[in-house]
């Protein structure tokens, strides 16, 4: 297993802010997310975000399970959140 410090294939969840700001009226990087795979709970910014796929893939820092996929086509944006039990966004 590679250490996180030597794994340069992913960014943290903060890198999704620009792409997701077009979909959500709030900054979800500070939202609390719960992984449906291992149950780990934490801020979305702590996820591992992969951008080398056709779109964005956010993975759990605990179990590496896929939490979210975002793919944009010329006509639509697809958001798959099935890897999250919930995404808790604080009221302002």
Describe the structure.
It is a single chain. This protein has 92 residues and is mainly β. The chain has one domain (4-88). Helices cover 5% and strands 39% of the residues. The protein has one helix at residues 17-21, and strands at 11-12, 32-35, 41-43, 48-53, 55-59, 66-72, 77-80, 84-88. The strands form two sheets. A five-stranded antiparallel beta sheet has the order 1-4-5-6-7, with no helix packed on it. Strands 3-2-8 form a three-stranded antiparallel beta sheet, with no helix packed on it. The longest helix is centred in the first third of the chain and has 5 residues, at 17-21. The radius of gyration is 13 Å and the shape is globular. The mean pLDDT is 87. Pfam families: DUF6510.
Cα-based radius of gyration, to the nearest Å? 13 Å
Count of structural domains:
1
* Outline type: globular
Query: Spatial order of the strands in the main sheet?
Result: 1-4-5-6-7
Structural class designation: mainly beta
Query: What fraction strand?
Result: 35-45%
Q: Which residue ranges are poorly predicted, with pLDDT under 50 across at least 5 consecutive positions? A: none
Number of distinct beta strands: 8
Strand count, sense and barrel status of the largest sheet are: 5 strands, antiparallel
Helix content: under 10%
Whole-number mean pLDDT? 87
Number of helices: 1
Q: Give the distance, in angstroms, between the N- and C-terminal Cα atoms.
A: 40 Å
Query: What is the string of helix and strand elements?
Result: EHEEEEEEE
InterPro entries: DUF6510 (IPR045423)
Pfam families: DUF6510 (PF20120)
